[in-house]
Amino acid sequence: MEKQKRLRQGQILKLIAGESLVSQEALRRRLRGLGHRVNQATLSRDLHELKLVKTAEGYKTLGAEEAPAQPSLARVLREFLLDLRPAQNLLVLKTPPGGAQPLAVALEAERWKEILGCIAGDDTILLVMGSGKSRAAVQNHLQELLK
0.70 exceeded by the pTM? Predict the structure, then answer.
């Protein structure tokens, strides 16, 4: 099932790149011609998952310049971070309940090379760095953003 979905979504991307398809029905007919029988609900889910938007010229991918703006990391830190605890090459960030996810999203959006991984629960985030030196650099940067 998942393999069929990936194949179908790949075909959708190829179709919209190659021609102007201005309606879901037109897209559905083209997919049927390629051997993919989908209903409107499935096609809507595919369009949503692929982040496609309908324009006057047909469906297009949502470009980075059109993506909703993410709040700045400094703002999210000031809003959610309650405590920052170092542990060798790890940083444990404490937030109020429900605050870990938005903070983790903002951290990951920064794509800092020092951060190897980020795990978020409900009120705790674990940042993994490659060394204590990298951890200290990330910690210092976060503390600077809080000022």
Answer: no
User: Using one digit for the tens of pLDDT, what is the confidence trace for 67-77?
Assistant: 455 568 998 99
Three-state secondary structure call for residue 129: strand
Q: For residue 63, report the phi and psi dihedrals to the nearest 5 degrees.
A: -70, 160
Inter-residue contact 120 to 104 (CB < 8 Å):
yes
Please tell me the distance from the alpha carbon of residue 99 to that of residue 74, in angstroms, as a whole number.
Answer: 14
CATH classification of the domain holding 53: 1.10.10.10
Q: Which of 44-53, 85-94, 104-113, 130-139 has the lowest mean pLDDT?
A: 44-53
Residues 29 and 90 in one domain: no
The domain in which residue 87 lies consists of 73-146
CA distance 50 to 34: 19
DSSP for residue 112: -
| Amino acid sitting at position 20 | S
